[in-house]
Design a protein that fits this description.
Length: 427
């Protein structure tokens, strides 16, 4: 059986990859917090008195996307929720957002059978919910042994994952036979699941949970205060680098330099790297420019600056609300997959991104048809597209209205997901 081969290979592969991932985790920080959970040593909770739901989310984006779904479960006294995350940043955010909403927030154990089995004994779930593509073989096998139904929600297949499953059909078949119901985030992804052999009756299109995340209301006073904290004047026009990856910051700095020479308005730049531990790399880049800049993690800016490096966690939404144009990262140069454009759309911020947004392909296609986003194919085109928007306030206003309407029309996936799960469990 595949599970026994997986168990045999797990430890050698784990220790072979440990130096690389250990270094990355050390740079990111916070990984030693509650590390006992990684070994399965979660608290002992006793026998369930309600339907005990174990939800596993990977990182920050998946954790945020759960907000409305958790509200529905919270209102239903038949459930109690246990939430785990994989990344340290996701764990920090989950504790901040949901400590009063769920019964427990913890770290997902490493998927070795001893650790997984111990965690299963301590939580004793009645239901398992996995976010997007979080399919761990040992975790799924423990669900089978315990006769616990598994739901995959907000499910999607990236280009890389899809190709891998097509190549290794046996692995795909084994994994998905352990999943009872799959709530798919787009019609395109539904077709992909069918193509890799998932039975159609297991699949249901529900939409994307990320549309249901509450958009914080940011008042004019809030914006004025935040601009001052960043070191910008109140009338500043702002380009946002949203969840940027290597090389994209340099492109945005070049764009700012050009706009300062050509635009009638005074433009400023906020860089929000996807991984805050890249701050030293980006600060090195900023030091080689003539721009004044501020590092957000140091607190309030003491002077007026041109660029803010937002090397903090959990502030992307309010920084997005402040911006006038958003470039979505992980979409240009050697970067691939893309970050979510949904926050920018929710606030009606005109969007530019590269041609490598495969993780959000259906969303991007919809945005492009709508006319609310511009896809570019290289850094030169990106600079030109941002400059075009910067020099056309009327076009920005038109796109803003289109994006807000589009966003509102895509909400509702959380409620549908909750109903599917509840109807399955209490049929």
């Amino acid at each position: 059986m595949l599970i026994f081969l997986y168990r045999i290979l797990f430890l050698p592969v784990f220790f072979a990859m440990l130096p690389y991932y250990g270094y990355r985790m050390w740079k990111r920080g916070g990984y030693l917090t509650d590390i006992k959970y990684r070994f399965g040593f979660l608290p002992k909770f006793g026998k369930p008195t309600k339907k005990r739901v174990w939800i596993q989310a990977v990182s920050v984006g998946e954790v945020k996307a759960l907000s409305k779904l958790l509200e529905f479960f919270k209102k239903d006294d038949r459930y109690e929720i246990f939430l785990t995350t994989t990344s340290s940043t996701g764990y920090t955010l989950a504790k901040k957002l949901y400590s009063k909403v769920v019964a427990f927030v913890g770290l997902f154990p490493w998927d070795f059978w001893l650790f997984s089995r111990l965690a299963w004994k301590r939580i004793s779930p009645n239901v398992v919910i996995l976010m997007e593509g979080e399919l761990w073989p040992e975790h799924l096998y423990q669900a089978k042994l315990c006769n616990v139904p598994v739901f995959l929600v907000n499910a999607r297949l990236s280009d890389k994952t899809y190709d891998r499953y097509l190549k290794y059909e046996g692995v795909a078949h084994w994994l998905f036979k352990h999943v009872d119901k799959i709530g798919v985030c787009s019609e395109e992804n539904l077709k992909r699941f069918v193509n890799i052999g998932v039975p159609r009756q297991k699949l249901q299109f529900v939409g994307n949970l990320k549309f249901d995340v509450d958009v914080p209301v940011v008042t004019a006073e809030d914006k004025s205060r935040l601009k001052n904290e960043l070191g910008f004047p109140e009338d500043a026009k702002i380009i946002l680098g949203s969840s940027t990856w290597p090389g994209e910051e340099d492109m945005l700095i070049r764009c700012l330099r050009m706009l300062r020479k050509s635009s009638a308005e005074k433009w400023y730049l906020v860089l929000v790297p996807r991984h805050a531990e890249r701050r030293e790399e980006i600060m090195g880049l900023l030091r080689r420019t003539s721009f004044l800049w501020h590092q957000r993690s140091l607190g309030v800016a003491k002077r007026r600056v041109d660029i803010c490096l937002a090397d903090t966690t959990g502030e992307l939404a309010q920084l997005t609300s402040l911006s006038d144009i958003a470039f979505i990262g992980k979409s240009l140069l050697k970067n691939n997959g893309g970050q979510s454009p949904i926050d920018a759309a929710a606030y009606g911020i005109p969007i530019v991104y590269g041609n490598r947004m495969s993780n959000f392909a259906s969303i991007c296609q919809s945005l492009e048809v709508l006319g609310g986003a511009t896809k570019v194919y290289d850094a030169t085109q990106a600079v030109q597209a941002i400059a075009t928007l910067a020099n056309n306030p009327q076009k920005r206003a038109q796109q803003a209205q289109l994006l807000r309407t589009w966003y509102a029309g895509n909400c509702g996936a959380s409620e549908l997901t909750y109903k599917i799960i509840t109807e399955y469990l209490f049929r």
